[in-house]
Amino acid sequence: MAQRYQRALEYLYPRLTTIKFGLDTTRRLLAALGNPHDVFATVHIGGTNGKGSVATLVADALARQGFRVGLYTSPHLVSFRERIRVNGAPITRDAVATWTEHLRPLADETSATFFEMTTAIALADFAARGAEIAVVEVGLGGRLDSTNVVTPLVSAVTHIALDHMKYLGDSLEQIAREKAGIAKPGVPFVIGESDPALAALLAEAAREAVTQPQPGATVETRLVEPGRVWEGALGLAGPHQRRNAAVAEAVLDALPLRWRPSRENVAAAFEDARLPGRLDRRGRWLFDVAHNPDGVEALVAALRADPPAGPVHALVSILGDKEWPAMLVALDQVVDRGILTIAPSAEGRRWDLEWLSRWLERPDRPPAHAEWTLVPDFPQALAEASAGAGTILVTGSFHTVGDVMQAVGIGA
What we know:
Strand 9 (280-282) and strand 10 form a beta hairpin. It is built from 15 helices and 14 strands. The mean pLDDT is 93. The chain is α/β, with parallel strands linked by helices. 50% of the residues are buried. It starts with a helix and ends with a helix. It has two domains: 2-272, UDP-N-acetylmuramoyl-L-alanine:D-glutamate ligase (3-Layer(aba) Sandwich); 280-408, Alpha-Beta Complex (Protein-Tyrosine Phosphatase, Chain A).
Protein backbone atom coordinates (compact mmCIF):
# COMPACT_ATOMS: atom_id res chain seq x y z
CA MET A 1 0.00 0.00 0.00
CA ALA A 2 2.78 2.42 0.93
CA GLN A 3 4.51 1.78 -2.40
CA ARG A 4 1.31 2.36 -4.38
CA TYR A 5 0.73 5.62 -2.52
CA GLN A 6 4.29 6.75 -3.18
CA ARG A 7 3.95 5.89 -6.88
CA ALA A 8 0.76 7.94 -7.01
CA LEU A 9 2.52 10.97 -5.53
CA GLU A 10 5.43 10.52 -7.91
CA TYR A 11 2.90 10.66 -10.75
CA LEU A 12 0.98 13.65 -9.37
CA TYR A 13 3.72 15.97 -8.13
CA PRO A 14 5.50 16.63 -11.45
CA ARG A 15 2.18 18.04 -12.68
CA LEU A 16 2.38 20.81 -10.06
CA THR A 17 4.49 22.94 -12.38
CA THR A 18 1.65 23.25 -14.90
CA ILE A 19 -1.17 25.71 -14.29
CA LYS A 20 -4.10 25.40 -16.69
CA PHE A 21 -7.33 27.37 -16.49
CA GLY A 22 -10.64 25.94 -17.61
CA LEU A 23 -13.13 23.33 -16.49
CA ASP A 24 -13.23 20.89 -19.41
CA THR A 25 -10.51 18.53 -18.18
CA THR A 26 -11.89 18.40 -14.63
CA ARG A 27 -15.35 17.66 -15.99
CA ARG A 28 -13.97 14.81 -18.11
CA LEU A 29 -12.15 13.34 -15.11
CA LEU A 30 -15.28 13.56 -12.99
CA ALA A 31 -17.41 12.04 -15.74
CA ALA A 32 -15.04 9.07 -15.80
CA LEU A 33 -15.72 8.68 -12.06
CA GLY A 34 -19.51 8.88 -12.43
CA ASN A 35 -19.80 12.58 -11.55
CA PRO A 36 -19.41 12.07 -7.79
CA HIS A 37 -19.88 15.78 -7.06
CA ASP A 38 -23.55 15.44 -7.97
CA VAL A 39 -24.36 13.19 -4.99
CA PHE A 40 -23.64 15.62 -2.13
CA ALA A 41 -24.23 19.28 -1.38
CA THR A 42 -21.37 21.81 -1.51
CA VAL A 43 -20.26 25.18 -0.20
CA HIS A 44 -17.70 27.04 -2.34
CA ILE A 45 -15.19 29.45 -0.74
CA GLY A 46 -12.82 31.76 -2.65
CA GLY A 47 -10.72 34.84 -1.92
CA THR A 48 -7.09 35.93 -1.80
CA ASN A 49 -6.53 35.37 1.92
CA GLY A 50 -8.73 33.87 4.60
CA LYS A 51 -10.49 31.28 2.47
CA GLY A 52 -8.83 28.33 4.20
CA SER A 53 -9.82 29.65 7.62
CA VAL A 54 -13.40 30.34 6.53
CA ALA A 55 -13.69 26.91 4.90
CA THR A 56 -12.42 25.20 8.04
CA LEU A 57 -14.80 27.11 10.32
CA VAL A 58 -17.78 26.35 8.06
CA ALA A 59 -16.87 22.66 7.88
CA ASP A 60 -16.38 22.41 11.65
CA ALA A 61 -19.77 24.00 12.33
CA LEU A 62 -21.54 21.65 9.90
CA ALA A 63 -19.83 18.65 11.48
CA ARG A 64 -20.81 19.86 14.96
CA GLN A 65 -24.41 19.94 13.71
CA GLY A 66 -24.10 16.22 12.94
CA PHE A 67 -23.50 16.21 9.19
CA ARG A 68 -20.84 14.11 7.50
CA VAL A 69 -18.65 16.85 5.99
CA GLY A 70 -15.96 16.80 3.34
CA LEU A 71 -13.31 19.53 3.37
CA TYR A 72 -11.06 20.22 0.36
CA THR A 73 -8.27 22.76 0.91
CA SER A 74 -4.90 23.57 -0.60
CA PRO A 75 -1.99 23.55 -0.42
CA HIS A 76 -0.93 21.06 2.24
CA LEU A 77 1.80 21.55 4.81
CA VAL A 78 3.34 18.12 5.44
CA SER A 79 1.17 15.44 3.81
CA PHE A 80 -0.82 15.43 0.57
CA ARG A 81 -3.59 13.71 2.53
CA GLU A 82 -4.29 16.92 4.50
CA ARG A 83 -6.03 18.36 1.43
CA ILE A 84 -8.94 15.91 1.48
CA ARG A 85 -10.76 15.25 4.76
CA VAL A 86 -14.12 13.89 5.87
CA ASN A 87 -15.07 14.93 9.40
CA GLY A 88 -11.40 15.63 10.01
CA ALA A 89 -10.10 12.25 8.82
CA PRO A 90 -7.70 12.54 5.87
CA ILE A 91 -8.02 10.52 2.70
CA THR A 92 -6.34 7.13 3.00
CA ARG A 93 -3.14 6.26 1.15
CA ASP A 94 -4.96 3.43 -0.55
CA ALA A 95 -7.67 5.77 -1.83
CA VAL A 96 -5.10 8.21 -3.24
CA ALA A 97 -3.43 5.35 -5.07
CA THR A 98 -6.66 3.81 -6.33
CA TRP A 99 -8.15 7.04 -7.71
CA THR A 100 -4.85 8.04 -9.30
CA GLU A 101 -4.42 4.66 -11.00
CA HIS A 102 -8.01 4.77 -12.25
CA LEU A 103 -7.65 8.28 -13.70
CA ARG A 104 -4.13 7.94 -15.06
CA PRO A 105 -4.96 6.96 -18.68
CA LEU A 106 -7.40 9.86 -19.05
CA ALA A 107 -5.01 12.21 -17.25
CA ASP A 108 -2.29 11.33 -19.73
CA GLU A 109 -4.67 11.83 -22.63
CA THR A 110 -5.85 15.25 -21.42
CA SER A 111 -2.56 16.43 -19.85
CA ALA A 112 -4.42 16.93 -16.60
CA THR A 113 -2.65 19.13 -14.06
CA PHE A 114 -1.96 18.28 -10.42
CA PHE A 115 -4.87 20.41 -9.27
CA GLU A 116 -7.31 19.02 -11.83
CA MET A 117 -6.40 15.51 -10.71
CA THR A 118 -6.53 16.38 -7.03
CA THR A 119 -9.93 18.05 -7.36
CA ALA A 120 -11.38 14.98 -9.06
CA ILE A 121 -9.85 12.69 -6.44
CA ALA A 122 -11.23 14.82 -3.62
CA LEU A 123 -14.78 14.85 -4.95
CA ALA A 124 -14.66 11.12 -5.65
CA ASP A 125 -13.37 10.42 -2.15
CA PHE A 126 -16.11 12.51 -0.56
CA ALA A 127 -18.76 10.52 -2.38
CA ALA A 128 -17.09 7.20 -1.55
CA ARG A 129 -16.92 8.09 2.14
CA GLY A 130 -20.54 9.17 2.29
CA ALA A 131 -20.13 12.91 2.73
CA GLU A 132 -23.48 14.67 2.90
CA ILE A 133 -22.00 18.10 2.23
CA ALA A 134 -18.52 19.30 1.21
CA VAL A 135 -16.80 22.62 1.77
CA VAL A 136 -14.60 23.30 -1.24
CA GLU A 137 -11.85 25.92 -1.22
CA VAL A 138 -10.95 27.56 -4.53
CA GLY A 139 -7.38 26.88 -5.61
CA LEU A 140 -6.47 29.89 -7.78
CA GLY A 141 -8.80 32.63 -8.93
CA GLY A 142 -12.31 31.25 -9.25
CA ARG A 143 -13.98 31.64 -12.63
CA LEU A 144 -11.75 29.08 -14.36
CA ASP A 145 -10.50 27.21 -11.29
CA SER A 146 -11.02 23.44 -11.33
CA THR A 147 -13.29 23.60 -8.30
CA ASN A 148 -15.81 25.74 -10.19
CA VAL A 149 -17.44 22.56 -11.49
CA VAL A 150 -19.62 22.44 -8.35
CA THR A 151 -23.04 24.05 -8.01
CA PRO A 152 -23.05 25.02 -4.35
CA LEU A 153 -25.71 25.92 -1.82
CA VAL A 154 -23.67 29.03 -1.01
CA SER A 155 -20.57 30.60 -2.54
CA ALA A 156 -18.38 33.24 -0.93
CA VAL A 157 -15.37 35.45 -1.55
CA THR A 158 -13.57 36.33 1.66
CA HIS A 159 -11.22 39.16 0.71
CA ILE A 160 -9.36 40.58 -2.29
CA ALA A 161 -5.66 41.48 -2.39
CA LEU A 162 -2.88 41.53 -4.96
CA ASP A 163 -1.54 38.02 -5.52
CA HIS A 164 -1.00 35.69 -8.47
CA MET A 165 -1.06 38.74 -10.77
CA LYS A 166 0.59 36.74 -13.56
CA TYR A 167 -2.58 34.67 -13.85
CA LEU A 168 -5.38 36.84 -12.45
CA GLY A 169 -4.47 40.37 -13.53
CA ASP A 170 -2.38 43.16 -12.07
CA SER A 171 -5.18 45.17 -10.46
CA LEU A 172 -7.58 44.51 -7.61
CA GLU A 173 -10.46 45.04 -10.02
CA GLN A 174 -9.26 42.31 -12.39
CA ILE A 175 -8.62 39.91 -9.52
CA ALA A 176 -12.05 40.60 -8.04
CA ARG A 177 -13.73 39.76 -11.34
CA GLU A 178 -11.93 36.44 -11.57
CA LYS A 179 -12.84 35.51 -8.01
CA ALA A 180 -16.48 36.56 -8.39
CA GLY A 181 -16.72 34.03 -11.22
CA ILE A 182 -17.73 31.35 -8.71
CA ALA A 183 -21.16 33.03 -8.32
CA LYS A 184 -24.06 30.90 -9.55
CA PRO A 185 -27.64 31.78 -10.55
CA GLY A 186 -30.02 31.69 -7.62
CA VAL A 187 -27.25 30.82 -5.16
CA PRO A 188 -26.44 33.18 -2.26
CA PHE A 189 -23.08 34.89 -2.84
CA VAL A 190 -21.45 36.07 0.41
CA ILE A 191 -19.01 38.98 0.12
CA GLY A 192 -16.52 39.23 2.97
CA GLU A 193 -14.46 42.07 1.49
CA SER A 194 -14.53 45.02 3.91
CA ASP A 195 -13.51 47.70 1.39
CA PRO A 196 -16.84 49.14 0.13
CA ALA A 197 -15.59 49.84 -3.39
CA LEU A 198 -14.19 46.32 -3.83
CA ALA A 199 -17.29 44.78 -2.26
CA ALA A 200 -19.45 46.67 -4.76
CA LEU A 201 -17.21 45.48 -7.59
CA LEU A 202 -17.53 41.88 -6.41
CA ALA A 203 -21.33 42.23 -6.36
CA GLU A 204 -21.35 43.68 -9.88
CA ALA A 205 -18.97 40.99 -11.15
CA ALA A 206 -21.10 38.27 -9.58
CA ARG A 207 -24.17 39.57 -11.41
CA GLU A 208 -22.20 39.57 -14.67
CA ALA A 209 -20.97 36.03 -13.99
CA VAL A 210 -24.50 34.65 -13.82
CA THR A 211 -26.11 36.70 -16.61
CA GLN A 212 -23.47 35.91 -19.24
CA PRO A 213 -24.36 32.22 -19.53
CA GLN A 214 -28.00 32.77 -18.54
CA PRO A 215 -29.46 36.15 -19.57
CA GLY A 216 -31.98 37.29 -16.99
CA ALA A 217 -30.52 35.12 -14.22
CA THR A 218 -30.08 36.67 -10.78
CA VAL A 219 -27.73 36.15 -7.85
CA GLU A 220 -28.42 37.02 -4.23
CA THR A 221 -25.42 38.94 -2.88
CA ARG A 222 -24.94 39.14 0.88
CA LEU A 223 -22.45 41.68 2.19
CA VAL A 224 -20.69 41.08 5.50
CA GLU A 225 -20.70 44.61 6.87
CA PRO A 226 -17.32 46.35 7.19
CA GLY A 227 -16.17 46.19 10.78
CA ARG A 228 -18.25 43.15 11.63
CA VAL A 229 -16.27 40.54 13.57
CA TRP A 230 -17.04 37.40 15.55
CA GLU A 231 -17.41 38.38 19.20
CA GLY A 232 -17.50 34.92 20.75
CA ALA A 233 -14.73 32.56 21.80
CA LEU A 234 -12.51 31.59 18.87
CA GLY A 235 -9.86 28.90 18.64
CA LEU A 236 -8.02 30.65 15.79
CA ALA A 237 -5.56 33.34 16.91
CA GLY A 238 -5.19 36.84 15.49
CA PRO A 239 -7.54 39.80 14.96
CA HIS A 240 -7.97 38.92 11.29
CA GLN A 241 -9.47 35.57 12.24
CA ARG A 242 -12.36 37.32 13.96
CA ARG A 243 -13.24 38.85 10.61
CA ASN A 244 -12.86 35.45 8.93
CA ALA A 245 -15.18 33.95 11.56
CA ALA A 246 -17.78 36.64 10.83
CA VAL A 247 -17.61 35.70 7.15
CA ALA A 248 -17.96 32.01 8.03
CA GLU A 249 -20.99 32.84 10.18
CA ALA A 250 -22.55 34.69 7.22
CA VAL A 251 -21.94 31.69 4.96
CA LEU A 252 -23.65 29.40 7.47
CA ASP A 253 -26.56 31.82 7.82
CA ALA A 254 -27.01 31.79 4.03
CA LEU A 255 -27.48 28.02 3.92
CA PRO A 256 -30.96 26.56 3.42
CA LEU A 257 -32.62 25.92 6.78
CA ARG A 258 -32.10 22.17 6.50
CA TRP A 259 -28.33 22.62 6.50
CA ARG A 260 -28.04 25.55 8.88
CA PRO A 261 -26.28 24.73 12.18
CA SER A 262 -27.72 26.00 15.43
CA ARG A 263 -26.17 29.05 17.10
CA GLU A 264 -24.94 26.80 19.88
CA ASN A 265 -23.16 24.47 17.47
CA VAL A 266 -21.60 27.36 15.55
CA ALA A 267 -20.27 28.88 18.78
CA ALA A 268 -18.91 25.54 20.00
CA ALA A 269 -17.25 24.77 16.66
CA PHE A 270 -15.64 28.19 16.41
CA GLU A 271 -14.33 27.97 19.97
CA ASP A 272 -12.71 24.59 19.28
CA ALA A 273 -11.43 25.41 15.77
CA ARG A 274 -7.80 24.66 14.98
CA LEU A 275 -5.93 25.32 11.74
CA PRO A 276 -2.26 24.32 11.44
CA GLY A 277 0.10 26.99 10.16
CA ARG A 278 -2.05 30.00 11.02
CA LEU A 279 -0.53 31.82 14.00
CA ASP A 280 0.11 28.27 15.16
CA ARG A 281 2.09 28.20 18.42
CA ARG A 282 3.93 24.96 19.19
CA GLY A 283 6.16 25.58 22.19
CA ARG A 284 8.74 28.15 21.11
CA TRP A 285 7.80 27.71 17.45
CA LEU A 286 5.28 30.05 15.83
CA PHE A 287 4.15 29.03 12.35
CA ASP A 288 2.25 31.26 9.94
CA VAL A 289 1.76 30.70 6.21
CA ALA A 290 1.55 34.40 5.29
CA HIS A 291 2.73 34.39 1.68
CA ASN A 292 1.82 37.81 0.25
CA PRO A 293 1.93 41.39 1.54
CA ASP A 294 -1.67 41.32 2.72
CA GLY A 295 -1.06 38.14 4.70
CA VAL A 296 2.10 39.55 6.24
CA GLU A 297 0.23 42.70 7.27
CA ALA A 298 -2.26 40.50 9.14
CA LEU A 299 0.60 38.58 10.76
CA VAL A 300 2.32 41.80 11.85
CA ALA A 301 -0.92 43.15 13.32
CA ALA A 302 -1.44 39.91 15.23
CA LEU A 303 2.11 39.95 16.64
CA ARG A 304 1.68 43.55 17.73
CA ALA A 305 -1.61 42.73 19.43
CA ASP A 306 -0.16 39.70 21.22
CA PRO A 307 3.68 39.87 21.20
CA PRO A 308 5.41 36.50 21.56
CA ALA A 309 8.23 35.91 24.02
CA GLY A 310 11.32 37.64 22.71
CA PRO A 311 13.67 37.81 21.11
CA VAL A 312 11.84 36.81 17.92
CA HIS A 313 13.95 34.93 15.37
CA ALA A 314 12.27 34.79 11.95
CA LEU A 315 13.06 31.99 9.50
CA VAL A 316 11.75 33.18 6.15
CA SER A 317 11.52 31.72 2.66
CA ILE A 318 9.26 33.39 0.09
CA LEU A 319 8.42 32.25 -3.43
CA GLY A 320 10.09 34.15 -6.22
CA ASP A 321 6.88 35.48 -7.79
CA LYS A 322 5.75 37.24 -4.61
CA GLU A 323 6.27 40.89 -3.56
CA TRP A 324 8.91 39.85 -1.07
CA PRO A 325 10.65 43.24 -0.50
CA ALA A 326 7.40 44.68 0.88
CA MET A 327 6.85 41.53 2.94
CA LEU A 328 10.32 41.75 4.50
CA VAL A 329 9.98 45.44 5.28
CA ALA A 330 6.72 44.70 7.12
CA LEU A 331 8.16 41.72 9.00
CA ASP A 332 11.14 43.79 10.09
CA GLN A 333 8.87 45.77 12.39
CA VAL A 334 8.11 42.83 14.68
CA VAL A 335 11.21 40.59 14.66
CA ASP A 336 14.65 40.93 16.22
CA ARG A 337 16.57 38.70 13.85
CA GLY A 338 15.75 37.40 10.40
CA ILE A 339 17.26 34.48 8.52
CA LEU A 340 16.44 34.19 4.83
CA THR A 341 16.68 30.77 3.24
CA ILE A 342 15.19 28.44 0.63
CA ALA A 343 12.53 25.93 1.63
CA PRO A 344 13.53 22.62 -0.03
CA SER A 345 10.07 21.96 -1.45
CA ALA A 346 10.10 25.43 -3.08
CA GLU A 347 13.39 24.96 -4.93
CA GLY A 348 11.70 25.18 -8.32
CA ARG A 349 9.99 28.46 -7.39
CA ARG A 350 12.64 29.97 -5.16
CA TRP A 351 13.39 33.65 -4.91
CA ASP A 352 16.43 35.13 -6.67
CA LEU A 353 19.28 34.86 -4.18
CA GLU A 354 21.60 37.23 -6.04
CA TRP A 355 18.92 39.89 -6.18
CA LEU A 356 18.06 39.26 -2.54
CA SER A 357 21.70 39.58 -1.52
CA ARG A 358 22.02 42.86 -3.40
CA TRP A 359 18.79 44.13 -1.85
CA LEU A 360 20.07 43.41 1.64
CA GLU A 361 23.16 45.55 0.91
CA ARG A 362 21.33 48.46 -0.69
CA PRO A 363 21.81 51.66 1.30
CA ASP A 364 18.51 53.09 0.09
CA ARG A 365 16.27 50.32 1.43
CA PRO A 366 14.23 51.17 4.53
CA PRO A 367 16.33 51.18 7.72
CA ALA A 368 16.10 47.77 9.36
CA HIS A 369 15.08 47.15 12.94
CA ALA A 370 16.17 43.51 12.82
CA GLU A 371 19.47 41.91 11.88
CA TRP A 372 18.96 40.09 8.58
CA THR A 373 21.23 37.39 7.15
CA LEU A 374 21.03 35.21 4.06
CA VAL A 375 21.63 31.50 4.71
CA PRO A 376 20.68 29.55 1.54
CA ASP A 377 21.42 26.14 3.10
CA PHE A 378 18.15 25.13 4.74
CA PRO A 379 19.51 22.86 7.54
CA GLN A 380 22.06 25.52 8.48
CA ALA A 381 19.40 28.23 8.46
CA LEU A 382 17.15 26.09 10.64
CA ALA A 383 19.97 25.50 13.11
CA GLU A 384 20.83 29.20 13.29
CA ALA A 385 17.20 30.21 13.77
CA SER A 386 16.87 27.69 16.60
CA ALA A 387 19.96 28.90 18.47
CA GLY A 388 19.36 30.96 21.59
CA ALA A 389 16.27 31.74 23.62
CA GLY A 390 13.05 33.30 22.41
CA THR A 391 10.44 32.58 19.74
CA ILE A 392 11.16 31.11 16.31
CA LEU A 393 8.74 32.56 13.75
CA VAL A 394 8.51 30.49 10.56
CA THR A 395 6.76 32.22 7.68
CA GLY A 396 6.79 33.25 4.01
CA SER A 397 4.94 30.37 2.34
CA PHE A 398 3.17 27.08 2.89
CA HIS A 399 6.39 25.42 1.69
CA THR A 400 8.41 27.08 4.43
CA VAL A 401 6.04 26.14 7.24
CA GLY A 402 5.56 22.58 5.99
CA ASP A 403 9.27 21.94 5.45
CA VAL A 404 10.19 23.18 8.92
CA MET A 405 7.36 21.19 10.55
CA GLN A 406 8.60 18.09 8.83
CA ALA A 407 12.25 18.77 9.66
CA VAL A 408 11.60 19.23 13.39
CA GLY A 409 9.01 16.45 13.68
CA ILE A 410 5.91 18.58 14.25
CA GLY A 411 2.81 17.21 12.56
CA ALA A 412 0.29 19.37 10.81
